[in-house]
Design a protein that fits this description.
The chain is of the alpha/beta class and 171 residues long. It has a single domain (7-133), classed as P-loop containing nucleotide triphosphate hydrolases (Rossmann fold). It contains six helices and five strands, in the order H-E-H-H-H-E-H-E-H-E-E. The strands form two sheets. Strands 1-2-3 form a three-stranded parallel beta sheet. Helix 2 crosses helix 3 (49-62). The longest helix is centred in the C-terminal third of the chain and has 18 residues, at 108-125. 25% of the residues are buried.
């Protein structure tokens, strides 16, 4: 169920429009600027050009790249590239964000930035963020509901950010 609708009954194209996806690898278009990478999702959905420009500018500010919209991915750090990828997921104001290891290859400073952005979007826009990670320290720090999977099965579902209700140490 997403937004009260059974996803099995919703056409895939309609379902996709209500979601933003952040991949583990950035998957940015190398020949497009940060602005163009973020704007692309809105353009595909035929948003009016003036709205694409204003919303893309807003999203660049949100992800802390307001002054770097003209840069190509190769001109950005890994953390900045990930924030462009996050911006691309946010451009259409999704109700659900699926984030696959969005901090996996980032240094601690950029990890903090990414977590802050996702938390802000969750709080201010009531967006559900489904965050998949192997980083126990991040899970414990977030203090949110944690569903732990093992071999494709749910082995625990706990509130409070600790795996199986008890703090788990990194291995």
């Amino acid at each position: 169920m997403i937004g009260g609708a059974d996803v099995a009954q919703v056409p895939g194209s309609q379902l996709r429009r209500s979601m933003g996806i952040i991949f583990q690898t950035f998957r940015l278009m190398e020949k497009k600027s940060a602005f163009e990478n973020i704007a692309y999702g809105a353009e595909v959905l035929a948003m009016p050009a003036s709205q694409v420009r204003s919303r893309t500018t807003e999203v660049l500010q949100l992800v802390g790249l307001g002054d770097k919209g003209h840069r190509l991915p190769a001109e950005l750090s890994g953390g900045e590239q990930q924030r462009v990828a996050i911006g691309r997921a946010l451009i259409n104001r999704p109700k659900l964000i699926l984030a696959d290891e969005p901090t996996g290859d980032l240094d601690p400073e950029n990890t903090d930035r990414v977590l802050e952005i996702l938390d802000q979007v969750h709080r201010e826009h009531q967006t559900t963020v489904l965050f998949a990670t192997h980083a126990v320290e991040i899970v414990n720090r977030l203090q949110r509901r944690v569903i732990r999977l093992q071999d494709g099965r749910i082995v625990s579902d706990a509130a409070g950010g600790y795996w199986a209700g008890a703090k788990v140490e990194s291995r």
